[in-house]
Design brief:
With 371 residues, the protein is of the alpha/beta class. The protein folds into two domains: 199 residues, 3-Layer(aba) Sandwich (Rossmann fold); 153 residues, 3-Layer(aba) Sandwich (Rossmann fold). Helices cover 36% and strands 18% of the residues. The protein contains twelve helices and 14 strands. The strands form two sheets. It has a seven-stranded mixed β-sheet, with helices on both faces. Strands 10-11-9-8-12-13-14 form a seven-stranded mixed β-sheet. Helix 1 crosses helix 12, helix 4 runs parallel beside helix 5 and helix 10 packs across helix 11.
Protein backbone atom coordinates (compact mmCIF):
# COMPACT_ATOMS: atom_id res chain seq x y z
CA UNK A 1 0.00 0.00 0.00
CA UNK A 2 1.44 3.38 -1.03
CA UNK A 3 1.63 6.29 1.41
CA UNK A 4 0.46 9.83 0.70
CA UNK A 5 0.99 12.93 2.83
CA UNK A 6 -2.00 15.26 3.02
CA UNK A 7 -1.24 18.74 4.38
CA UNK A 8 -4.25 20.43 5.98
CA UNK A 9 -4.77 23.41 8.28
CA UNK A 10 -6.65 21.40 10.93
CA UNK A 11 -8.40 18.07 11.51
CA UNK A 12 -11.24 16.94 13.76
CA UNK A 13 -12.07 17.49 16.55
CA UNK A 14 -11.71 21.07 15.26
CA UNK A 15 -14.77 22.27 13.34
CA UNK A 16 -13.18 22.66 9.93
CA UNK A 17 -14.77 21.78 6.60
CA UNK A 18 -11.38 21.29 4.98
CA UNK A 19 -10.35 18.84 7.69
CA UNK A 20 -13.55 16.85 7.17
CA UNK A 21 -12.98 16.92 3.40
CA UNK A 22 -9.43 15.57 3.63
CA UNK A 23 -10.41 12.90 6.17
CA UNK A 24 -13.28 11.65 3.99
CA UNK A 25 -10.92 11.57 1.01
CA UNK A 26 -8.33 9.63 3.04
CA UNK A 27 -10.95 7.02 4.00
CA UNK A 28 -11.99 6.52 0.39
CA UNK A 29 -8.43 6.40 -0.94
CA UNK A 30 -7.64 3.70 1.63
CA UNK A 31 -10.79 1.71 0.78
CA UNK A 32 -10.80 1.98 -3.02
CA UNK A 33 -7.23 2.70 -4.07
CA UNK A 34 -4.98 1.15 -1.41
CA UNK A 35 -3.46 4.55 -0.66
CA UNK A 36 -2.68 5.24 2.99
CA UNK A 37 -2.58 8.82 4.31
CA UNK A 38 -0.26 10.49 6.78
CA UNK A 39 -1.62 13.91 7.77
CA UNK A 40 0.47 16.99 8.40
CA UNK A 41 -1.43 19.66 10.33
CA UNK A 42 -0.29 23.21 9.54
CA UNK A 43 -1.82 24.95 12.55
CA UNK A 44 0.52 24.69 15.58
CA UNK A 45 -2.41 25.66 17.81
CA UNK A 46 -4.49 22.65 16.78
CA UNK A 47 -5.18 20.21 19.61
CA UNK A 48 -5.87 16.61 18.72
CA UNK A 49 -4.55 13.07 18.83
CA UNK A 50 -1.51 11.81 16.97
CA UNK A 51 -3.72 9.34 15.11
CA UNK A 52 -7.26 9.38 13.75
CA UNK A 53 -8.97 6.23 12.43
CA UNK A 54 -5.56 4.67 11.93
CA UNK A 55 -4.20 7.67 10.00
CA UNK A 56 -1.04 9.01 11.62
CA UNK A 57 -0.66 12.76 12.19
CA UNK A 58 2.35 15.07 12.43
CA UNK A 59 2.24 18.65 13.63
CA UNK A 60 5.00 21.25 13.77
CA UNK A 61 5.40 23.32 16.91
CA UNK A 62 5.57 26.46 14.80
CA UNK A 63 4.89 27.64 11.28
CA UNK A 64 8.29 27.59 9.64
CA UNK A 65 9.88 26.17 6.50
CA UNK A 66 12.45 24.32 8.62
CA UNK A 67 9.74 22.62 10.69
CA UNK A 68 7.88 21.54 7.55
CA UNK A 69 11.01 20.18 5.85
CA UNK A 70 11.88 18.18 8.98
CA UNK A 71 8.41 16.56 8.88
CA UNK A 72 8.54 15.85 5.14
CA UNK A 73 11.42 13.42 5.26
CA UNK A 74 13.27 12.42 2.12
CA UNK A 75 11.44 9.08 2.19
CA UNK A 76 8.12 10.81 1.47
CA UNK A 77 7.64 11.05 -2.28
CA UNK A 78 4.07 12.36 -2.75
CA UNK A 79 2.31 15.28 -1.06
CA UNK A 80 -1.26 16.50 -1.50
CA UNK A 81 -1.64 20.05 -0.21
CA UNK A 82 -5.09 21.47 0.56
CA UNK A 83 -4.52 25.17 0.06
CA UNK A 84 -6.44 27.99 1.68
CA UNK A 85 -4.09 30.88 2.45
CA UNK A 86 -5.83 31.90 5.66
CA UNK A 87 -5.69 28.31 6.90
CA UNK A 88 -1.91 28.54 7.17
CA UNK A 89 -1.30 32.21 7.99
CA UNK A 90 -3.27 34.88 9.82
CA UNK A 91 -3.05 37.30 6.89
CA UNK A 92 -3.40 34.68 4.18
CA UNK A 93 0.25 34.75 3.05
CA UNK A 94 1.85 31.45 4.23
CA UNK A 95 5.35 32.14 2.92
CA UNK A 96 6.73 29.51 5.31
CA UNK A 97 4.57 26.84 3.68
CA UNK A 98 5.59 27.61 0.10
CA UNK A 99 9.27 28.00 1.04
CA UNK A 100 9.22 24.67 2.86
CA UNK A 101 7.50 22.87 -0.01
CA UNK A 102 9.93 24.39 -2.49
CA UNK A 103 12.89 23.09 -0.52
CA UNK A 104 11.31 19.64 -0.24
CA UNK A 105 10.14 19.54 -3.87
CA UNK A 106 13.49 20.49 -5.36
CA UNK A 107 15.51 18.20 -3.08
CA UNK A 108 14.69 15.15 -5.23
CA UNK A 109 13.37 14.44 -8.71
CA UNK A 110 11.16 11.78 -7.09
CA UNK A 111 9.27 14.30 -4.97
CA UNK A 112 5.81 14.97 -6.38
CA UNK A 113 3.45 17.75 -5.26
CA UNK A 114 -0.27 18.03 -6.02
CA UNK A 115 -2.07 21.14 -4.77
CA UNK A 116 -5.82 21.41 -4.44
CA UNK A 117 -6.61 25.14 -4.45
CA UNK A 118 -9.77 25.47 -2.40
CA UNK A 119 -9.12 29.23 -2.63
CA UNK A 120 -6.50 31.37 -4.39
CA UNK A 121 -6.61 34.81 -2.79
CA UNK A 122 -8.98 37.07 -0.93
CA UNK A 123 -10.39 40.42 -1.94
CA UNK A 124 -12.29 43.09 -0.10
CA UNK A 125 -12.98 46.76 0.42
CA UNK A 126 -10.05 49.22 0.62
CA UNK A 127 -10.42 49.46 4.39
CA UNK A 128 -9.78 45.72 4.86
CA UNK A 129 -6.44 43.93 5.08
CA UNK A 130 -7.58 41.50 2.38
CA UNK A 131 -7.62 44.36 -0.15
CA UNK A 132 -4.05 45.43 0.58
CA UNK A 133 -2.65 41.92 0.89
CA UNK A 134 -4.38 40.55 -2.19
CA UNK A 135 -1.38 41.13 -4.55
CA UNK A 136 0.93 39.22 -2.18
CA UNK A 137 -1.61 36.43 -1.87
CA UNK A 138 -1.93 36.22 -5.67
CA UNK A 139 1.83 36.10 -6.17
CA UNK A 140 2.24 33.42 -3.54
CA UNK A 141 -0.55 31.31 -5.07
CA UNK A 142 1.02 31.65 -8.52
CA UNK A 143 4.37 30.58 -7.14
CA UNK A 144 2.79 27.56 -5.45
CA UNK A 145 0.95 26.58 -8.63
CA UNK A 146 4.19 26.67 -10.62
CA UNK A 147 5.95 24.64 -7.95
CA UNK A 148 3.24 21.96 -8.04
CA UNK A 149 3.41 19.04 -10.44
CA UNK A 150 -0.37 19.22 -10.64
CA UNK A 151 -2.75 22.01 -9.60
CA UNK A 152 -6.45 21.30 -9.08
CA UNK A 153 -9.38 23.44 -7.99
CA UNK A 154 -12.90 22.94 -6.73
CA UNK A 155 -14.70 25.05 -9.34
CA UNK A 156 -14.22 26.68 -12.71
CA UNK A 157 -14.03 30.25 -11.40
CA UNK A 158 -10.96 29.40 -9.31
CA UNK A 159 -9.53 27.46 -12.26
CA UNK A 160 -9.90 30.53 -14.47
CA UNK A 161 -8.17 32.70 -11.86
CA UNK A 162 -5.24 30.29 -11.69
CA UNK A 163 -5.00 30.10 -15.48
CA UNK A 164 -4.89 33.91 -15.65
CA UNK A 165 -2.10 33.97 -13.09
CA UNK A 166 -0.17 31.38 -15.09
CA UNK A 167 -0.42 32.72 -18.64
CA UNK A 168 2.29 30.31 -19.84
CA UNK A 169 0.43 27.25 -18.51
CA UNK A 170 -0.04 24.76 -21.39
CA UNK A 171 -3.33 23.18 -20.23
CA UNK A 172 -6.36 24.47 -18.27
CA UNK A 173 -6.52 23.71 -14.55
CA UNK A 174 -8.89 20.80 -13.81
CA UNK A 175 -11.75 21.42 -11.38
CA UNK A 176 -13.36 18.84 -9.10
CA UNK A 177 -16.54 20.05 -7.34
CA UNK A 178 -16.46 19.12 -3.67
CA UNK A 179 -18.25 16.08 -2.29
CA UNK A 180 -20.54 15.82 0.72
CA UNK A 181 -18.76 15.67 4.07
CA UNK A 182 -21.78 14.10 5.79
CA UNK A 183 -22.41 11.06 3.68
CA UNK A 184 -24.09 9.92 0.50
CA UNK A 185 -27.22 7.87 1.33
CA UNK A 186 -28.15 5.18 -1.19
CA UNK A 187 -31.84 4.94 -0.32
CA UNK A 188 -33.73 8.24 -0.33
CA UNK A 189 -37.47 8.87 -0.14
CA UNK A 190 -39.22 10.98 -2.80
CA UNK A 191 -40.11 14.43 -1.55
CA UNK A 192 -43.83 13.65 -1.36
CA UNK A 193 -43.09 11.03 1.32
CA UNK A 194 -40.90 13.29 3.45
CA UNK A 195 -41.96 15.56 6.31
CA UNK A 196 -42.41 19.19 5.31
CA UNK A 197 -39.15 20.28 6.88
CA UNK A 198 -36.47 22.74 5.81
CA UNK A 199 -32.79 22.67 6.76
CA UNK A 200 -30.45 25.62 7.30
CA UNK A 201 -27.00 24.09 7.63
CA UNK A 202 -23.41 25.33 7.73
CA UNK A 203 -21.03 27.65 9.51
CA UNK A 204 -22.41 30.37 11.80
CA UNK A 205 -21.59 33.09 9.26
CA UNK A 206 -23.38 31.36 6.39
CA UNK A 207 -26.45 30.56 8.49
CA UNK A 208 -26.55 34.05 9.99
CA UNK A 209 -26.83 35.51 6.48
CA UNK A 210 -29.94 33.41 5.91
CA UNK A 211 -31.74 34.92 8.90
CA UNK A 212 -30.42 38.46 8.58
CA UNK A 213 -30.26 39.01 4.81
CA UNK A 214 -32.53 36.39 3.23
CA UNK A 215 -35.38 36.18 5.72
CA UNK A 216 -38.00 37.36 3.20
CA UNK A 217 -36.94 34.65 0.76
CA UNK A 218 -36.96 32.05 3.52
CA UNK A 219 -40.51 33.09 4.45
CA UNK A 220 -41.65 32.75 0.84
CA UNK A 221 -40.25 29.23 0.48
CA UNK A 222 -41.90 28.20 3.74
CA UNK A 223 -45.24 29.53 2.46
CA UNK A 224 -44.95 27.98 -1.02
CA UNK A 225 -44.12 24.49 0.27
CA UNK A 226 -46.16 24.64 3.50
CA UNK A 227 -43.05 24.03 5.60
CA UNK A 228 -43.97 22.91 9.12
CA UNK A 229 -40.55 22.94 10.79
CA UNK A 230 -37.09 24.45 10.22
CA UNK A 231 -33.96 22.79 11.55
CA UNK A 232 -31.00 25.10 12.15
CA UNK A 233 -27.96 22.83 12.15
CA UNK A 234 -24.59 23.99 13.44
CA UNK A 235 -22.88 25.90 16.20
CA UNK A 236 -25.22 28.26 18.11
CA UNK A 237 -25.90 31.64 16.49
CA UNK A 238 -27.08 33.65 19.52
CA UNK A 239 -30.02 34.92 17.44
CA UNK A 240 -33.72 34.94 18.34
CA UNK A 241 -34.89 32.43 15.73
CA UNK A 242 -37.39 30.33 17.66
CA UNK A 243 -39.91 30.98 14.87
CA UNK A 244 -39.71 32.17 11.27
CA UNK A 245 -43.01 33.50 9.94
CA UNK A 246 -44.82 31.29 12.41
CA UNK A 247 -42.78 28.19 11.55
CA UNK A 248 -40.98 26.74 14.58
CA UNK A 249 -37.18 26.58 14.37
CA UNK A 250 -35.33 23.75 16.07
CA UNK A 251 -31.71 24.70 16.77
CA UNK A 252 -29.79 21.43 16.97
CA UNK A 253 -26.40 22.88 17.81
CA UNK A 254 -23.35 21.02 16.58
CA UNK A 255 -24.25 17.39 15.86
CA UNK A 256 -22.47 14.48 14.19
CA UNK A 257 -22.42 13.77 10.47
CA UNK A 258 -24.80 10.80 10.76
CA UNK A 259 -27.38 12.91 12.59
CA UNK A 260 -27.11 15.69 9.99
CA UNK A 261 -27.53 13.13 7.23
CA UNK A 262 -30.69 11.79 8.86
CA UNK A 263 -32.16 15.29 9.05
CA UNK A 264 -31.37 16.01 5.40
CA UNK A 265 -32.83 12.68 4.31
CA UNK A 266 -36.11 13.66 5.97
CA UNK A 267 -36.46 17.20 4.63
CA UNK A 268 -37.82 18.86 1.51
CA UNK A 269 -35.50 21.85 1.30
CA UNK A 270 -31.92 22.79 2.05
CA UNK A 271 -31.66 26.60 2.20
CA UNK A 272 -28.39 28.44 1.52
CA UNK A 273 -27.30 32.06 1.06
CA UNK A 274 -24.28 31.75 -1.24
CA UNK A 275 -22.85 33.11 -4.52
CA UNK A 276 -24.01 30.95 -7.42
CA UNK A 277 -20.59 31.00 -9.12
CA UNK A 278 -19.06 29.26 -6.08
CA UNK A 279 -21.69 26.60 -5.43
CA UNK A 280 -19.42 23.80 -6.68
CA UNK A 281 -16.98 24.55 -3.83
CA UNK A 282 -19.67 24.55 -1.14
CA UNK A 283 -19.77 21.38 0.97
CA UNK A 284 -23.22 22.52 2.18
CA UNK A 285 -24.58 22.59 -1.37
CA UNK A 286 -22.90 19.23 -2.01
CA UNK A 287 -24.65 17.75 1.02
CA UNK A 288 -28.02 19.04 -0.19
CA UNK A 289 -27.45 17.51 -3.62
CA UNK A 290 -26.24 14.19 -2.17
CA UNK A 291 -29.41 13.91 -0.06
CA UNK A 292 -31.73 14.65 -2.99
CA UNK A 293 -33.65 17.49 -1.41
CA UNK A 294 -34.35 20.85 -3.08
CA UNK A 295 -31.33 23.16 -2.87
CA UNK A 296 -32.72 26.69 -2.50
CA UNK A 297 -30.17 29.45 -3.00
CA UNK A 298 -30.50 33.10 -2.03
CA UNK A 299 -27.85 35.47 -3.30
CA UNK A 300 -27.22 39.14 -4.01
CA UNK A 301 -24.34 38.41 -6.39
CA UNK A 302 -24.46 38.12 -10.16
CA UNK A 303 -26.12 34.90 -11.30
CA UNK A 304 -23.76 32.51 -13.07
CA UNK A 305 -24.30 29.25 -14.92
CA UNK A 306 -21.03 27.44 -14.35
CA UNK A 307 -19.69 24.02 -13.31
CA UNK A 308 -22.65 22.41 -15.07
CA UNK A 309 -25.13 24.06 -12.69
CA UNK A 310 -28.20 25.96 -13.86
CA UNK A 311 -30.70 27.94 -11.79
CA UNK A 312 -34.14 26.37 -12.02
CA UNK A 313 -32.66 23.02 -13.02
CA UNK A 314 -30.16 22.09 -10.29
CA UNK A 315 -31.26 24.57 -7.61
CA UNK A 316 -34.12 26.97 -7.00
CA UNK A 317 -33.08 30.60 -6.98
CA UNK A 318 -35.15 32.77 -4.66
CA UNK A 319 -36.89 35.59 -6.46
CA UNK A 320 -37.08 33.41 -9.58
CA UNK A 321 -39.09 35.08 -12.36
CA UNK A 322 -40.68 31.77 -13.38
CA UNK A 323 -43.10 31.75 -10.47
CA UNK A 324 -43.63 29.85 -7.26
CA UNK A 325 -41.81 26.72 -6.21
CA UNK A 326 -44.07 23.67 -6.24
CA UNK A 327 -43.40 20.19 -4.96
CA UNK A 328 -43.39 18.80 -8.52
CA UNK A 329 -40.88 21.39 -9.71
CA UNK A 330 -38.86 20.82 -6.56
CA UNK A 331 -38.71 17.08 -7.17
CA UNK A 332 -37.34 17.63 -10.68
CA UNK A 333 -34.70 20.01 -9.28
CA UNK A 334 -33.78 17.58 -6.50
CA UNK A 335 -33.40 14.77 -9.05
CA UNK A 336 -31.23 16.88 -11.35
CA UNK A 337 -29.05 18.07 -8.46
CA UNK A 338 -28.61 14.49 -7.29
CA UNK A 339 -27.64 13.32 -10.79
CA UNK A 340 -25.15 16.20 -11.13
CA UNK A 341 -23.61 15.20 -7.81
CA UNK A 342 -23.17 11.57 -8.85
CA UNK A 343 -20.72 12.62 -11.57
CA UNK A 344 -18.20 13.61 -8.89
CA UNK A 345 -19.23 11.76 -5.74
CA UNK A 346 -16.65 10.68 -3.18
CA UNK A 347 -15.84 7.35 -4.83
CA UNK A 348 -15.33 8.94 -8.25
CA UNK A 349 -13.23 11.70 -6.77
CA UNK A 350 -11.00 9.24 -4.93
CA UNK A 351 -10.27 7.58 -8.26
CA UNK A 352 -9.58 10.98 -9.84
CA UNK A 353 -7.19 11.95 -7.04
CA UNK A 354 -5.46 8.57 -7.29
CA UNK A 355 -4.91 9.21 -10.99
CA UNK A 356 -3.55 12.73 -10.46
CA UNK A 357 -1.34 11.58 -7.61
CA UNK A 358 0.25 8.86 -9.74
CA UNK A 359 0.90 11.01 -12.80
CA UNK A 360 4.52 12.05 -13.20
CA UNK A 361 5.10 14.93 -15.56
CA UNK A 362 6.54 13.77 -18.87
CA UNK A 363 7.65 17.21 -19.93
CA UNK A 364 10.82 18.80 -18.55
CA UNK A 365 10.26 20.90 -15.43
CA UNK A 366 11.80 24.36 -15.41
CA UNK A 367 12.55 24.68 -11.73
CA UNK A 368 14.33 27.96 -11.27
CA UNK A 369 12.68 30.02 -13.95
CA UNK A 370 10.07 31.37 -11.54
CA UNK A 371 12.18 32.14 -8.48
Amino acid sequence: MSVLVQIVPRLPPAVDGLGDYSLNLARQLRQDCEIETHFVVGDPGWTGATEIEGFTISQGNKRSANALVSILSSSISTVLLHYVGYGYAQRGCPLWLVNGLQRWRTASANHYLVTMFHEVYASGSPWTSAFWLSPWQRNLAARLARLSDKALTTNQIIAQILDQLLLDKPTPTPSLPVFSNIGEPKQLLPLAERPRQLIVFGTPGIRRRVYQESLTSLNQICDQLAIERIYDVGSPLCLDISHVNGVPVVATGKIGAAAVSTLLSNALVGFLDYPTHLLAKSTIFAAYCAHRLIPVVATTSTIFQIDGLEAGKHYWLTGSPVGKLSLATGQAIADNAHCWYQTHNLSIQAQSFATYLSQKETTERVQNHYY
